[in-house]
């Protein structure tokens, strides 16, 4: 038995069974054939309920084809008179209204049929819906005079209907289609007189429709009569809030149309400007019992810029009342006592003088016009009204410096509001009017108290506001600096924001900084002080303040000791955007304030010479051309690192030249070592880098012209062509066909772009476009030979930069650097990592993602919430969010890399199978390492 086992073990088997992989099943998608003919088939319904069900189901399929429109309309019009239920007829009229939006609707044919149905209809609701349908028809036939006359004649007859639905629909029709020439056929009254009469209708909904109709006339460019103002003033006491709101809007319109017209004042013989009287009327509405009316009134006040200053200033004056009488000043009371001649007890002079009898119903706190309007608006119980009042107050303050100084205290009081959005609105309002204001100490105490707010958005906005303000005294600046330093201890993650605030304070109040500089820098006239730690954020904040003030007052420079100048040199290199350029008195440290005009001309000359040098590449051999590209890359790399305003342009050209060099090297190797597996993988990797860099050139730079973008597209197409030849050498028939289809799709996209912009083509692309012109389906073998034969025509291209480019700039402030204390969380659960970054020169932030790279090389793209991006200005954003981390258990703490990337999807399918997703992740910032430790799950 043992011999048999040994014999079997030593046996040589000559047969090898190889299992072939079964071909993958291809899914065939069959598009469902949709019938073009749509039929209602209302005749099949046995009752009205089934008809309504058919109409509801048909309404879900709208819009329909134009071919089926006439048949459907004919069936609807035929069924309408046979239907007994008014609700179903109303639904039919509603469906006809929706069908009237289709372009092939025959208005001349169906308008008469709708009018005939309107004459015989008895239901008010159905008549109202038919009038709405006629409104849609009339809009499409606005220039058809005959149709407009028919419609207006029918609508005028229905204005006397007993139903408010019909009258409201008719008024809406007149507001959207009425003209100044149209008159009532019987009374011959003009249109606006008819609308004014309906402002006193017994039904409030009709009154609202009348006001809205006048507003629609104004929006259509028809001049509203001045006589409407009196009707609006009367309607301000209407018991329906929508009527009062519409009346306020119409008063606002008339104030803009007739600002200098005079109107009589109530109960007097005086006349004032209409814009002033309208302003007072809108101010009175701030005391309305409806929140919607108060909000609308508060929001409309801000756009009345032509109001007289005396009325404007009254809005901040709040008159107090005691025992239903206005509280008089001490001077007024003394004068009355002196003028009184009545007998009294002798204790108080004129204490028994008779007083006028007052009716409580006639007492109003706002009987003095615009008095206290904004005070009441800012103290309203609803945040919508307070925000609207703040917006209007800010807008009026921007246009009136004197009013801005008066409203300063009112706006600052809103810093203590209980709602965050109101506080933020108040902070932004003060910042907008900062050019007209100067902060006092009592005001600054209120403002600095908000620095302790838990909301990071509030703190950020407040510091930005402080940087724009002017301070009254040096004590104000000292309190502000001390509070900012205290705020730095409490919120160390806000240090960048605090440094920016210090920079702006130094620029705005350099004179006050000069008086505080000895105390801030601890300068002693008799002995030397120890050198502070440059890594201390508080000391760095003081330096930022003083250095920016010294840029405007050179008197500060002699106060600086040698270590201060060393610190300046260090900060100027580490944070140049926060430290202003200075010149040392002994000329040891000299920094140019800005790039001179000669430097600008030199950089322009450098770019032109570089482009001219690259134009000679087509006449050189491959090895010489590649050496020239390498030399050019060194020059461009040096210029891009200088930190000037031309660095981004130099970096753009550097990436483009690098693409040309890599593509040239790949083409040379492909021609000499064609289809060798040893070089194929490295060549594919190089081509992937070229495609990635073309995406960076297209997506990460602003100001790229059409000529530069055309060269980027051509480079991408050439790299894809070389990649196609490598893919076809090692793929099966199915993958080769798919790769060819993707390449042809990309070629059509690039060819269309180049043709539209009339770009100059490369020799290779010219030959390729001419040979494939008009060919719909190209076999992989044919396309492979075409690209392979013309590959030698590929030459590096020269780039001319026409504009100064700007690159997307992202700076991650938090997390800053690796800490000894790791971030701990239980394995399998999640942990929130705070992320704070500044983003500049970007148009769309919706494509930004957080890229997390774990120690096991696993990567994760985290989609960021759009609300976490706060817009600071054009193309400038501030990101404050949390990145969720989660992983398995680790044996020891490890570093996790976090960075921000831009995810883009090109408009073409990838050629290589290595990038099947077609999604490019473009790095926007350097990765930040965070020490993370996972804990085991406790049982």
Automatic annotation (TrEMBL):
Q: Which residues form the Integrator complex subunit 4/Protein SIEL C-terminal Ig-like domain?
A: 811-936
* InterPro entries attached to this UniProt entry: ARM-like, ARM-type_fold, INTS4_8HBD, INTS4_C
Among its keywords, does the record have Ligase? no
Q: Name one Pfam family in it.
A: INTS4_8HBD
Query: What GO terms describe the biological role, i.e. biological process, of this protein?
Result: snRNA processing
**GO cellular component terms given for this protein:** integrator complex
Gene3D superfamilies this protein is in?
A: Leucine-rich Repeat Variant (1.25.10.10)
Annotated ranges, domain INTS4 8 helical bundle: 605-798
Determine the domain of life of the protein's source. Answer: Eukaryota
Localization of this protein: Nucleus
Arranged from A to Z, the UniProt key words for this protein are: Nucleus
- Its protein name is Integrator complex subunit 4-like
